[in-house]
Amino acid sequence: MKKTRNYQGKDVDMLTACRTIAGSFAANITELSTIRTGWTAAYSSGLITRIDTTITDYLGLDARHDQREATAGVIALQVPAQRDLTFFKAQVDSDFKKELLRHDEILRTLGFTSYYKDVSKGNQESMVQLLYFFKTNMTDALKTEITGKGMSIELINRILTYAEAFMQANTTQEQTKDSSIELKAGAIEAFNETYDEMIAICKIAASYYRFEPLKKDLFTFTRVQANQRGGTSNRVPEPAPTPVQ
């Protein structure tokens, strides 16, 4: 009897998502270990090892190493970048609340008007576009104007460093996707076991972080999978508007 999968999509995409979430689980195990007795540092490291072994045994040693690394790199950048962009916008909203035309012009020129809504939902392509606009149009004059209102120059400089790093990591992720492999016996059972275990972790961890959206997204399986395929950074960013003087 033919085995059926408990999940939709490609095996490699599911396992890559599981490996990514397992990494987030390990990174937050000190906090998460307080809510379940079985969630220990040893368990989290063992989980990563088991997923890596499953990938090695059934998809080949290097089948998706580059994609896993690239995906982890994108996610590692996405959380702090999204946080800093949100903080930047909040300060512009406050600092220029009595200068609405200037407020709107700054946000439009830096890409917030077109892309921030989707960035806040975790869309990688929109993140690439917004960071590109920000890097292209953040002139010295605009820096001086914004920091003159009280914003930290360190915040602006951090966002500028995200642009190139995020675009490079996202491009690597896209370039490493794909490929079909003929599976050997026992593969689907192993894949289903990995998937079921990770979904159980996600349900509890996402509930625990329900009031922390950025962390909740790290344990929302569909969100992690969408992030894996959501960016199309090979596309050249749209032309930036004329910088604000």
Domains counted in the coordinates: how many? Answer: 2
Shape: elongated
Strand content: under 5%
Spatial extent as radius of gyration: 21 Å
Mean pLDDT across the residues is: 83
Distance between the termini: 69 Å
| Structure summary, number of beta strands | 0
Number of helices: 12
Name the structural class: mainly alpha
Described by strand count, sense and barrel closure, the largest sheet is: none
- Helix share, percent: over 70%
Uncertain stretches of 5 or more adjacent residues = 231-245
Structure description:
The chain is an all-alpha fold. The protein is elongated and about 65 Å long. The longest helix is centred in the first third of the chain and has 31 residues, at 65-95. The chain has 2 domains: 11-67 and 180-230, no CATH class; 79-174. α1 packs antiparallel against α3, α1 packs across α10 and α3 (41-59) packs antiparallel against α10. It starts with 10 loop residues before the first helix and ends in a 15-residue tail after the last helix. It contains 12 helices and no strands. It has helices spanning 11-27, 29-32, 41-59, 65-95, 100-109, 112-119, 124-137, 140-147, 153-175, 187-208, 213-218, 221-230.
What are the defining features of this structure?
245 residues; mainly alpha; 2 domains; 12 helices; disordered C terminus
Brief characterization of the structure:
Helix content is 70%, strand content 0%.
